[in-house]
Amino acid sequence: MEEVKQEEWHFKIEPWITMIPLMLSIFMFALDETISNVALPYMAGTFSISHNESTWIITSYLVASGIVIPAVDFFSKLIGRKQYFMLSIVIFTFASILCGVSNSMAMMIFSRVLQGVGGGGILPIAQAVIFEIFPKEKLPAAMAVFGLGVIMAPIMGPALGGWLTENYSWPFIYFINIPFGIIAFLLAHKYVEEPPYSRKQKNVKLDASGFFFLALWLATLQVVLDKGNDADWFGAAWICKLFTVSMIAFFTFVFIQVKKGKSHTGLIDLSILKNHNFLIGTMGQVILMGVMMASASILPSMLQSLLGYTSFLSGLSMVPRGAGCFLASILCGVLVSKIGIRPVAATGLIVLASAGLLFGEINTTISLKEIALPNFVFGFGMIMAMVPLSNISCATLPKEAQTNAAGVQNLLKNTGAAIGTSIATTMISRFSQAHQMMMIKSLADTNNVYSERLSAMTSSFLSQVDLPTATYMAQAQIHNMLRQQATLWGYVETFRYFAVAVIIILPFVFFLYEGKKEAEAKKD
Questions:
Q1: CATH architecture under which domain 1-205 falls
Q2: pLDDT of residue 64
């Protein structure tokens, strides 16, 4: 009966008009993944927290949206897909207001979680609607616009966030969502149609136990990752206990989904991970999302803390990454049709790894122009790797499995982005401490270079103060220089590990099948 309804239904509104509210809401959701990055130092000062703690503002949003994604199908059936889409926009916009007026870290985290809850329903529904409203011959163009919006928005986020923070104040990075949220809601109400099969259904049940253990797993894991470094990891009893709870919740969630997957009553069907392409392609995308979001988080922070960049300039440094993405998105389709998916994906991974190595050569005297090249290469490589992997991961799946595949994939990618951001922050802190311990040994009177530098700097201060004070000031300045260099090395090593993580994916690309015929041939 449902199939008949789908065949009989015809969309009356021009698809490209419907795309306007869809892309506007998608852009808002994706933009807020990174728009906070350049404003973290300002928010950390407002809430009197450390930089490490301020990353919760980013990760809480990613985790919350990741938790909601598997339940989108349930809420769409419960109240109707169009109604749920508009409700998601309302929640997202209202949460943006709360973010802007937050006066404590607790309120900010609550607001960002609520924002993630609203945003989690936007992307999957918009993607499903696009697949429905466009005929097959126009779908590639529509998906190109969709993909460009999803990728470009996080890249534009730091630049826009920096400009708003510098010219107004950090709350405006959230207040800017208000007019766009209202416009998206009104346009969605008018131009997004509601087919019979997407309307409210009766007797809809939620996998409550699965949803609970999913939320418990991701929430506790995020606390462990974000607070672990400050608490000395497993040296703290409460970290051990919380990690145990997280692992128990994870295995319980997996057990429930495997058990209910046979009757199709679970949140997600994990049996799809048995598909060769889907497993490898998804794991590759999880790592790439972790690298992309982590780099987008730590680069503006490095430019502000070490090089003295303003929030706007640190955000502006990300624009060449967008240019690289745009160029790669144009070339990707052409190259895939000529040389195949696997060669393009492998090339993208190599280019992306080289960008990590280029970032590994930065120093404290580098200019904004010199940051542009590795950023451009990074954006170019990311699209060249991500788009083919996204396509090939679902190439051997039947059509009826595509919806579940999208839910599983988006859940894992959001989780990877949040975990990657937390791990990168921890790596910078640990690597900086390690290098400081190694370098501090050189600040000894037996080191002639140190003694000469100390003497010269002391002499420069003698015209202003007495000898003991001048010596103290010289020692303090040298120690600050050492800390700056140690911190720089923390960032350098982290970027190099990004390259290592990307290279790990490379060999697996060649084990992917480019279509169902090749997969069947391999099995035979």
A1: Up-down Bundle (1.20)
A2: 87
Kindly report whether the global pTM for this prediction surpasses the value 0.85. Answer: no
Class of domain 269-426+501-524: mainly alpha
Phi, psi angles (nearest 5°) of residue 367 = -100, 170
Domain boundaries, the chain: 1-205, 208-266, 269-426+501-524
Decide if 1-205 and 269-426+501-524 have a common fold: yes
From the CA atom positions of the chain, what is the Rg in Å?
A: 25
Write down the residue that tokens 């499995």 correspond to: 401
Burial class of residue 443 (count of CB atoms within 10 Å of its CB; 0-12, 13-18, 19+): middle
Q: Are 303 and 165 a contacting pair, CB within 8 Å? A: no
Alpha-helix runs per DSSP H in 267-401: 276-307, 311-316, 319-339, 341-359, 368-393
Q: Is the distance from CB of 467 to CB of 458 less than 8 angstroms?
A: yes
Alpha helices for 394-466 (secondary structure H)? 402-439, 448-461
pLDDT digits (tens, 9 = 90+) for 453-492: 888 888 888 888 888 888 888 888 888 888 888 888 888 8
pLDDT tens figures, 329-341 = 888 878 877 888 8
Residue pair 128/84 in contact (Cβ under 8 Å)? The answer is no
Task: Specify burial of residue 230 (Cβ count, 10 A radius: 0-12, 13-18, 19+).
Answer: middle
Burial 9-48 (b: 16+ CB within 10 A, else e): eeeeeebeebbebbbbbbbbbbbbbbbbbbbbbbbbebbe
Nearest to 100 by CA among 175, 43, 49, 165: 175
pLDDT band at 402 (very low <50, low <70, confident <90, very high): low
